[in-house]
Each structure stands twice: as C-alpha cells, then as structure tokens.
Amino acid sequence: MEEMESLGEVVEELAHGENCREKIVQVKRIMGAMHQYQRGVSNAYERIAEVTKAFNKAFLYREESYSTQTILDIFRSYGYEGDD
Questions:
Q1: pTM reported for the whole predicted model
Q2: Which residue range forms the structural domain that includes residue 64?
Q3: Number of neighbours of residue 59 by Cβ within 10 angstroms
C-alpha cells in the first residue's frame, strides 16, 4: 500500500514536470518493489494451494459406490432370502 501511495506521489510530481529523469528512476524502483511483493504473494498462494491439496487428499473420505447386485450379495451372505 505504501508503494502505491509513493507511486501516486511520484507520478503527480512527474506530471508537473519535476526532474523527469529522477522521477522515472523512482518509478522504476517502486515498480520493482511491487513486482517483488507480487511474486512473494504468488509463491505463498501456490504453497498454500499445495498444502490444501495434500490435506484434502490425506483426509478425504471416499465412500465406495456399490451396485445393487453387490449389495444384495452382501445381504445374502448374511442370510437374506429376498426377491431377485
């Protein structure tokens, strides 16, 4: 946020014709800092996504789906004698 405010001030000064070369160097420095921050945030999001996927994969309960025939076979093995 500070960098954005600084950039706004430098751009305003540049618009008023104040020492253009110096102001462009300041803009370049500020933009570099903003890009570095953005890369850090992006890397953090990637790591969080990886950890989230790992947790979801490790703790995901998957319910098995059985066909009707399989369910009937299981019941029959315990003595069920219903209609087919």
A1: 0.53
A2: 2-77
A3: 7
